[in-house]
Amino acid sequence: MAIRGIGFDIDGTLYPNRQMFLLSFPSLLRSPRLVWHFSRVRKEIRQVETISHFRALQAEMIARSMNTDPVKTRLLVEKRLYQNWESDFRYLKPYPYVKQLLEELKNRGDLKLGVLSDFPVQNKLSFLGLENFWDAALSSEEVNYLKPRPEPFLALAERMELAPEEILYVGNSPRYDITGASQVGMKTAFLGPAAKDPGADFRFTDYRRLRNYIMTLLP
After folding, report:
1. Residues 7, 169: Cα–Cα separation, whole Å
2. Of residues 88, 91, 139, 94, the one with CA closest to residue 114
3. Is 137 helix (H, G, I), strand (E, B) or coil?
4. Which residues face 6 on adjacent strands?
């Protein structure tokens, strides 16, 4: 089946992970204990079966882990992590050829483009200079579940107004991106080394190769 849309992860996919680590280092220095517990809870919350208010549950789990008040903890997470990270990431730069590829795909007029990230999306896209290409931009938190749960990927397909089988999803995480997208029927392209390839439909390390692969999937 020919594809009619392409979905992208953001962190580590549209720009290198090393940028994220370097730019988030100030937040780590400001609040190392909070960052550690936040990272731990983000792994644990992926296993929770029923979530109705993601940020509230996340704060409760962090507060339990840190033995602190949930309300104060949520305010602390919002200020010291989400807000500070947004400020830290204003110097992000996309991978080479990402913008050129998106411009070419957008100009075709017959493809829908979407992004799906486990973290808030829009300002990060603006920092990257990539805010104007998307038919759908979604954070997993908006649907209360993180990757690789099927809910975020199905929500992306719904917002793109396509069947999952009509979408190629591009990501750099074998477990979260490739496994998650594959399980709902999306085609997958993995950005990373062959040793970590989880069995994606395509693997690449240069966006020019991804461009050539995409052309083979179009009608």
Report:
1. 5
2. 139
3. strand
4. 113, 168
pLDDT tens track, the chain, 219 positions: 789 999 999 999 999 988 877 777 777 777 899 999 999 999 999 999 999 999 999 999 999 999 999 999 999 999 888 887 777 778 889 999 999 999 999 999 999 999 999 998 878 899 999 999 999 999 999 999 999 999 999 999 999 999 999 999 999 999 999 999 999 999 999 999 888 877 899 999 999 999 999 999 998
Counting every residue written for the chain, the total comes to: 219
Q: Give how far Cα 140 sits from Cα of 75, 115, 162, Å.
A: 20, 10, 18
Burial profile 52-65: b = 16 or more Cβ within 10 angstroms, e = fewer: eebeebbbbbbbee
Spatial CB neighbours of 131, under 8 Å, sequence gap ≥ 6: 122, 125
**Residue 23 CA: distances (Å) to CA of 28, 29, 87, 88, 90:** 10, 11, 9, 6, 9
Euclidean distance between CA atoms 44 and 190, whole angstroms: 24
User: Which sign, positive or negative, has the C-alpha torsion 13, 15, 17, 20?
Assistant: negative
Edge-to-edge strand list for the sheet holding 112-117? 136-139, 112-117, 5-8, 167-171, 187-191, 202-204
In the numeric block, the tokens 């931009």 are attached to 137
For residue 168, the SS3 value is strand
- Residues in contact with 18: Cβ distance below 8 Å, sequence separation at least 6, in sequence order: none
CB under 8 Å to 10, separation ≥6 — which residues?
115, 117, 119, 121, 124, 125
